[in-house]
Amino acid sequence: MIVRQAEPKDADSIAKLYAQLVNNPAVEVEQEQLLALSTDERTMLYVCEHKGNVVGSALLSLCPDVMFRKQPFAVVENVIVDSTARGLGIGAAMFREIERFCLKTHCSKIMLLSSSQRLESHMFFEKQGFKGSVKRGFVKYSSAFFSED
């Protein structure tokens, strides 16, 4: 198994993974965006290949912070392992790469959100060292943003 940075050629594979993550026809993974992310030193889109197929993905973004001088914190989003490849260590391998990157960039913490009904995912995240009982996450989607129009 190989964990690496996503490339434009991975767009279709990542889109298929995201279809397992969310049921939203508006999801569209563009090759141009994957190329742009590959040159952004504060963002990593990881994929995991197993037997030549992309079977996992996770997006990591560094956020600047002022609380601990220049030390950033990280946000992980869109973590998905193909349903046929779960239990093979794909997710754990991606989180090892995420932690390597965060150590190298001196992150103060890694945060992630997970849909409240994904109980198996929550157990996996806790096995990776995340604490689900320490903080509470809140989300406001763009459809609920205030508009003066």
TrEMBL record:
* Record carries keyword Acyltransferase: yes
Entry-linked Pfam families: Acetyltransf_1
Q: Which CDD domains match?
A: NAT_SF
Keyword Transferase set for record: yes
PROSITE patterns in alphabetical order: GNAT (PS51186)
Q: Which residues form the N-acetyltransferase domain?
A: 1-149
Tell me the protein's name. Answer: GNAT family N-acetyltransferase
Which keywords does the record carry? Acyltransferase, Transferase
Query: What is a GO molecular function of this protein?
Result: acyltransferase activity, transferring groups other than amino-acyl groups
User: Quick one: signal sequence residues?
Assistant: none
InterPro entries tied to this protein:
Acyl_CoA_acyltransferase, Bact_Acetyltransf, GNAT_dom
